[in-house]
Amino acid sequence: MKSTLCTIAQLAMLLLFVSILILPAPAGAGVPVPPPPPEPILNDSEEPGSVLIFHKFIRGTVPPTGDLPATEIAISVTCPDGSTCAGEPVFLRAHWVCPGKTDGVCHETKFDLDTTVKGTIRIRPDGHPQGQNPPCDEGYLIVWVIDDHGNPIKFDGLIGHAVIRHAASRDFPTVISEGAYNALPIQAAAHLHTGDFTDGNGNADGKLDFDGTEYKAITGRIFGTVRYEESNQSRIETHLTLLTLDVKSNQPNDPTHVEFNFFNENEHVRPSHLDFTCWTQVRLTDIDSGLNTSFGTKGLVESTSATQAGHDVTLVGIVSTLTFSNIPIAPGVCEQTAAACTQTAATCQAGCTLANATCTGSCTVDVAAVCAATVCSNVCPGSGFFGILACTLCQFDCTTAQAGLANACTAGCALTQATCQGTCAVTQGTCTGINGICTGINGICTATNGACQVVGATTSVPAVSEYSYSLFNDSKAVATTYDPFLDF
pTM for the full model? Predict the structure, then answer.
């Protein structure tokens, strides 16, 4: 009997204890709450990843020569942290992602690449030297590591950058602007090891999950400093390039709605918003015409939300600023052309007087003087034989007389004048006066076409500067899935 009573008492005590356990807790009492699921681990934009996002590409080439690519993308592969590498092959899959059209379809094109650890690949979105032509003029590129069978794997060794070139504007059609930015790396999930399948979490659906199970997550808010636009002699344009990874490849997509706040230097705010599908590039003044220097010179932009059909989605982007100006230059460069010597014909202007000429040489008698006796008897003494003889002698004397002996005969014997023809040479007179030299007038060698030629003289030249940088993200992860559906 006693044993039965003890058993009943023990049972009563047990029921009382159970009833106490199941009584509702009094108001305000602490109730243990199971811990929430862990937040997805965010990617590190400063570390190599298994996925790369190139925010912007432009298809084609740029003027004036047409041989410069509008976009040059470079992907390099380093050895993942904690791994040992020896030039192993690395296989990549890439998608050109286009902005959605009116039907919301974001068209994409797939192509595969390969390199090695420590290798670098150069891609142009015109099929040269690697890469398929994208199905649109601009958009973004996503690249991830695969194995040799096409399965996505963890290999946190990708880094890269892009150079963007384009004709600056309608006003500067032959001026090329050039900017560059770094790709956004996203690492595979922390619990995976290098070489593990990232799509091996039980679904194997071919999608890329950025939620910490396959790849680390990214966020849905952006922050950055922007230069507000101005329209004067030094025109400034600022562009936002935005994209989301919440994309269904080659399928209709909901538009992404973004709410912004723009602040100036004095913290005044201008709320704005923007809708896009998959990818967009937009000027600040196309978001809000008041985002110019009348509002501020520089300021802060931050997004407050990015949603598709009411649920949060990812958002990343870059800022690009272009400055157009005319730079004054010197009025030209003097280039001396080669001088050609043209000799003009010389004319002699003596400027002197000629001294008297002198005659040198001998003068010989050419015609002898002749003594003509008129009446010899009148001049000779006597007459008769002796008179005639005397007269004859007189004639003889006259005919044999030397030149200049006019008085050799007497008594009416007239002597003719002897003439001189001979070798009298007249020496040239000397010129005396201005240095005694005949100087040439207009006979100097002058340089022709040897003057200073001004080359390339302009008052100014057009110039464009461009710089790009990534927008910052907050620390709140937004789980998302990139769906490369219809993977062709």
Answer: 0.67
How would you write the chain as a 3-class SS string? CHHHHHHHHHHHHHHHHHHHHHCCCCCCCCCCCCCCCCCCCECCCCCCECEEEEEEEECCEECCCCCEECEEEEEEECCCCCCCCCCCEEEEEEEEECCCCCCCEECEEEEEEEEECCCEEEECCCCCCECCCCCCCEEEEEEEEECCCCCEECCCCEEEEEEEEEECCCCCCCCEEEEEEECEEECECCCCCCCCECCCCCCCCCCEEECCCCECEEECCEEEEEECEECCCCCEEEEEEEECCCCEECCECCCEEEEEEEECCCCCEEEEEEEECCEEEEEHHHHCCCCECCCCCEEEEEEEEEEECCEECCCEEEEEEEEEEEEECCCCEEEECCCEEEECCCEEECCEEECCCEEECCCCEEECCCEEECCHHHHCCCCHHHHHHHHHHHHHHHHHCCCCCCCCCCCCEEECCCEECCCCEEECCCEEECCCCCEEECCCEEEECCCEEEECCCCEEEEEEEEEEECEECCCEECEEEECCCCC
Residues 155/50, Cβ–Cβ less than 8 Å: yes
Q: Domain map of the chain by residue range?
A: 51-330+463-482
Separation between Cα atoms, residue 147 and residue 374, nearest integer Å:
157
For the ranges 300-314, 380-394, 413-427, 463-477, the lowest mean pLDDT is seen at: 380-394
What does the pLDDT look like over 399-458, one tens digit per residue? 444 444 444 444 445 555 555 555 555 555 555 554 445 554 555 555 555 566 666 565
User: Could you tell me the two tokens for 227?
Assistant: 């230069």
Name the one residue in this structure whose structure tokens are 């899935």. Answer: 481
Position 176 pLDDT exceeds 80? no
Q: Which residues contact 360 (CB under 8 A, 6 or more apart)?
A: 424, 425, 426, 427
**275-321 tens-digit pLDDT:** 999 999 999 999 999 999 999 999 999 999 999 999 999 999 999 99
Q: What torsion, rounded to 10 degrees, do the Cα atoms 72, 77, 320, 41 define?
A: 150
